[in-house]
Queue: 3 jobs
Job 1
Amino acid sequence: MRMRIGLPIAALLIMACARGAFAHGEAADEPFLKDLTVAFYDVHVSPTSVKVGDPVTITGTLKILETWPYTLDPPTTAYITPVVPGPVFALRDRTVNGEPAFGSIFVEKGGTYQYKMVMLARNPGRWHVHPGIAIQGTGTLLGPGEWVSVEPSTTPFRYDVTLLNGETVDLEH
Ligand SMILES: [Cu+2]
């Protein structure tokens, strides 16, 4: 009799305590990827609470480890990128080792890359933000993540770009 009551109570307690999934995806990477490919360190994401249209900056350093597995293609071409759940931020500016990096860069085993990425908050919500490096032939490897809250703004999102002829266009439209 005690068992009959105990089980439903336990089930209710578990349901009451269960919350939404809260994990960051990089925990799902295989250990050999996390330990042998790329080390991310000094990762900072700030600020972690903004309004739509405000900048969020990701800085940090990554090293492509000498232990890079021989079972993967050697790293040559890569793309350092914010990893966010969909187009909820828009990348505005990116430098790698102090140089502007508009697209892919050349990389090598043992190389160290200091990155800075500025992105604009585009959609309201609570988003997880990681630095990542997409390596040709391997895929995207993730660094540590941070939660960023984006509040709605009274002005709609804009992404203004000045063209060579001096004209300004809003890429959002
Ligand atoms: Cu995450």
Note: The longest strand covers residues 125-135.
Job 2
Amino acid sequence: MQNTATRSLLGGLMLAGFGTMANAQLTTTQTDLNPTTTNYVRDGVISPNEYGTGNTYSFTGGGTGFGGTVGAGTLYMDFDATDLKVGLQLGGNLNDIAVIYFDTRPGGFTDATMSDGADGSRRVISNLARDTEEGFPFQADYALTIGSFGTVAFELTGGSLTFQQFDGTFTGNSSATAREVSIAKSAFNIGGSFDFFVAYGSDTNFLSNESIPAQAFNADGNPGTGDAANPVQYTNFNRFQAVPSPAAWSVFALGGLPILSALRRRHRK
Ligand SMILES: [Ca+2]
Ligand SMILES: [Ca+2]
């Protein structure tokens, strides 16, 4: 078993957490053990071992207010050398817009600091419920929307969100079609680890109670246009990370061992 000092050193090495909020809670971490290779195929099907052995690089959620599309869905991820591969197996028909918020660097934006109303994706990303400012578990840097139109990726800003990419491979609302998309890690500033959560809402800012990971408000009704006296709080988030490379381990060996020795010496006193 690793002692606390080792674990905290490993945590520091992985550069995890880029400015989470005080009440934020990490729910699930998945680690890509082969971060330079993938079995991903963009075919609308989650095939065996496509997202890790046994498709274990997966994340589930909660809430059924919009039919379980996201709340009963499963989100898959995998790295290769250049890309993050994302697959969403829907739990119901995709009649609205799912948004994945990414935390990949310090700083960023929340519902309260974004306000781009130029199209459906931008409206959902920047204002989940029409009349309220939802709480985020972190300041988000990038977002990916998934709808019946395909997928759109943006860099977040306080003004007009910066368009990154559109993929129209998968359209329509059928729950039978998994939505699969590849994003260049460089486009989202993704290094060895990032945090994310998923929300679901309409392009008119009527918010579902569904999310990945599960949130406390999943058990309540849909937030809809929002209750100013009780704005929704997304406190829970997930993490996807690459297993440290041999280079990172050698840095750990060189830099970490003297620290561990010092800790041991101090412990003996
Ligand atoms: Ca991989
Ligand atoms: Ca596939």
Note: Confidence is low (pLDDT under 50) at residues 1-15, 258-269.
Job 3
Amino acid sequence: MALRIIIGLVLTAVAAALAGRRLWWLYSVGRTGQPAPERIDAARHHPATDAETQVTEVFGQRKLLKWSVPGIAHFLTFWGFIILLLTIIEAYGDLFSKTFAIPGIGHWAWVGFLEDLFAVAVLVGLAIFTVIRLRHSPRKEGRESRFAGSHTSAAWLVLFLIFLVIATLLVYRGAQINTGDFPYAHGAFASQIVGHWLAPLGLTANKALETTFILLQLAVVLGFGVFVTYSKHLHIIVAPVNVLFSRRPNGLGALQPMRSGGKVLDFEEADPDTDIFGRGKIEDFTWKGMLDMATCTECGRCQSQCPAWATGKPLSPKMVILDLRDHAFAKAPYLLAKSDEAKEKLPDSVKAEAQRPLVGDEAANGVIDPDVLWSCTNCGACVEECPVDIEHIDHITDMRRHQVLIESAFPTEASSMMKNLENKGDPWGMGEAKRLDWAEGLGFEVPVVDGKIGGDVEYLYWVGCAGALEDRARKATRAIAQLLHTAGVSFAVLGPAETCTGDPARRIGNEFVYSMLAQQNIETLNEAGARKIVASCPHCFNTIANEYPQLGGNYEVIHHTQLLARLVAEGKLTPVSPVDERITYHDPCFLGRHNRVFTPPREIMEHVPGARPQEMHRCKERGFCCGAGGARMWMEERIGKRINTERIEEALGTNPDTISTGCPYCMVMLGDAVSAKKSSGEAKESLEVVDVAQILERSLRPPVAAAAVGPAAAEPAGADGAGGASGDGKVADPGTARPGPPGHDLG
Ligand code: SF4
Ligand code: SF4
């Protein structure tokens, strides 16, 4: 008896020392990161939300269960480990007393049943994991496998260790049944089966098996516990903490302001020598950023949904996190060294790691390749999928901020966009004079705010740069204005006083230009007395609704599809003319995933008589990007397949007559891809990409007129878009031959 107690306690002490040492080291590494007081404040001030998140995300495994088969396997394993904590207490108790039963639980048969049920459930989970890992191994599927780049050997070892935990558990419990030491007379069905197999060995052998396998069980559990702290399975410990300090409701929507030393950076007072501008070194990340790195489970769900990865680009959100983590751990001895002398004494490999630039190409031995950094469209698919709430977009943007603001290193073709934003207030550099051209020829006058918004005006219509200046987007703008007018909604526009919201500048990392534009717009909006804003561009919608509050601009913002769906539901807009077409809807990332507006555009189409909506495979939360977000609209797409082509090929799979969307950027990107497909004969000539507002507007026209004009005339009469920036990289007005958006030419 004494020997087994000693062995059990020694094993425990060794494991606790090893795991504790590692956890302290991890904690120390995390502390080398920057402060993030806002995370602590948020967690402190919202205990109810935090509790709910823990229940749904951690215990309910909400995100994991979206992937039904692996989700169920993980759910079974997770809950198995929670329930089987009872058996570990029992194993320790057995070391001291053969008749041990957990106080308060005693010999309740249902506890024995539950323990066995979950032991079997874990085995089922393991079997599922094994099949998944075999079927989707990187060796078989190459980069298509979500495990490509993950540490697969460690994952196999963990599966084996978990199997050993359950196997040793069932053997010692089976032996206990035969020795009379088992606390549960009934219910433990699996242990009873094993006991039945072991019974012929006799009492002495069963006693030996009981002692040996209890010690083995403790050794395996403790060994597993130590291994967890050294592997990707660290997430078992840190995932609940990461979820607790993650952004609410998630890392989508708004970007975070630039912070240095825990404070929001004020550009007027910031000092490049002492303040941190974005992330230029691993220690510039906050402790929460480092926690993200330590929490990654390497599951690859983010990678499998990333449009950049899917189209052959080097960006994998998983690998970004893993590369940062590996670098942080390799550089840690340098960061933790207490003096220059101590740093000098470090191995050369550590010193070399400390010298690596955070962003740099292969020649520079950078941790993150520039092609990785600039491939991100900010689509949010990674954040949406990540089961442990890692905030990839924030990290990518913070690294971009450093590159743009400190290193002046970014894709050169984006520089004209930034100059145009700074000097002309729109990405094309067309200036304020053309901002009202879209309204020419409408059968009514569009009121323009002059000073204060009139008391009779309900909505300020935020048209956006593309909606005002890009040919195809202008058609949607006209349709929206027409619909609002028809429904009797009083609205006004800012016209020349409107400038870019700053979204492209912010998403590329130019926080300085973003702040300038945002402050200017907030001033304009406040002076005009704007309260309710309807925006037709999801990027403007997201920026004004979610990011302007960071600068004191608080407005009630809705997207035009939300307003139009409501007007239809209220009977203020009644579609009457059949639009006899098969229509597939493309979810704009900044409307859908980032802002959860999935239903209104679909509701609009459901009300249009004759329309036959046809969903693409990747839709709603799993919608596939058009390739324009994250300022990618303004960068060349040189690597891999074009994202818009990939999306259009999926759309063509539904054999659509029309592709609808709710975003001018998407219209441009998808429109370009459709044009290319028409040129190659892969798409029918009549196929168009339109805004859902254009479909609704067409259905409001008298049947004869609607039938006569067909899909190509989805815009109100007279909408020729003269003088606008065209999506094919040119400006339609010959008198203003400025370069158009380079990222979506037809080549
Ligand atoms: S935001 Fe989209 S493009 Fe960027 S890493 Fe995540 S999934 Fe990939
Ligand atoms: S970042 Fe999240 S989704 Fe991606 S591999 Fe890590 S845990 Fe999985």
Note: Residues 305-308, 315, 317, 376-382, 392-393 surround iron/sulfur cluster (ligand 1) (CB under 6 Å).
